[in-house]
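Example 412.
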Amino acid sequence: MALIVQKYGGTSVGDVDRIRNVAQRVAETRAAGHEVVVVVSAMAGETDRLIGLAQKLAPRPNERELDVILATGEQVSIGLLSLALQEQGCAARSFTGGQVRIQTDDVHTKARIVSIDAERVQQALKAGEVAIVAGFQGVSTEDEITTLGRGGSDLTAVAMAAALQADVCDIFTDVDGVYTADPNIVSEARKLARISYDEMLELASLGAKVLQTRSVEYAKNYGVPVHVRSSFNDRPGTLVVKEDASMEKVVVSGIAYNRHEAKITVTRVADRPGIAAALFGRIAEANIVLDMIVQNVSQDGFTDISFTVARADYGKTLEIVQRVAREIQADKVMGDDRIAKVSIVGVGMRTHSGVAARMFSALGKEQINIQMISTSEIKVSCVIEAKYMELAVRVLHDTFGLGAQAVAEEQA
Ligand code: ADP
Ligand code: ASP
Ligand code: MG
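Predicted structure in complex with aspartic acid:
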């Protein structure tokens, strides 16, 4: 008998028939003798709908109230799934994040989990029930409802699995696993049988939303075995595991893209110690996470600084930067939200050279201009004009031989 945490995403619980289908899967796992904790997301589109409603009343809604609204999405799903299970004769009980004490900090809309007191879940399991936990939500030390950032139900599942020392954390979604690129964009993308935590972490943070970034970080830190698989079939999915020697042989294992970022440039910034700290310090105080930062070589004592932020933070960041720019007497602040970031990821890059050059030349051949570049040990990212995003992903997938056909040829 194993203790299994299963997480079902928005599409998987998108309507009542799909919820029934999920209930059946859960009931089967239970009937096989396993203890099951289920984490569910809001029904597909519901979180966006709720954000839209809030924005009709307030263009930039108060984040405490927004969390109160957003948490309702998952609360509906847990109740519905519990009913569906009970109808199938399977004992089940639903819990909100607050009821199972998913304690977070107080950073509304992107709170971090501080601790979980899994006792109520354990009691339910002991009583023979399936425990159904609302994803994406927690409660702060001041008892305020918080949410864990978009895609945060993955994190709830992994954190639950860690707290309960579960045998596995199954992430059921609308694709068969983690692919070499988003299969909805690249039809030749290939499913990976295994991927290392580090590569998955890079892919996720670079935009592959199949797993939320923090959930991968958490899984890595607590050694939680994660299995990403389809909620619509029984095929094995992708195991996210510790790196092993065979993984280094592959130079590039995946391509990611992100079209939810925006670029801000501040021109003629005085090239003096403390200026960057003044600018970025103010952004950090607002809990805004920066991504790429590029500072040009200084000319006549001035420099230009460009950086990217999540598009959701674009307006707020522009306002802050415009204010700071006046204080530090910079020349101009320019914003562009029609950008996309494409990235290549692979642990093999540590030991292979020339990978970035191949990427730049592939983009160049397609006349795609590179606006910003950033690299780490196992990734290279380029910011490009948004309209070339899909083309860039396909071209890079091809250039690094990631397609099903390319691999079949290599093995022949
Ligand atoms: P859920 O609602 O189940 O949490 P998400 O929409 O958050 O599902 O994540 C699944 C989606 O992730 C897929 O439909 C796919 O479009 C996207 N995706 C992006 N990159 C990848 C990738 N490398 N492998 C698989 N899916 C990916
Ligand atoms: N419902 C939330 C979202 O859409 C959380 C999740 O689905 O994981 O971001
Ligand atoms: Mg998701």
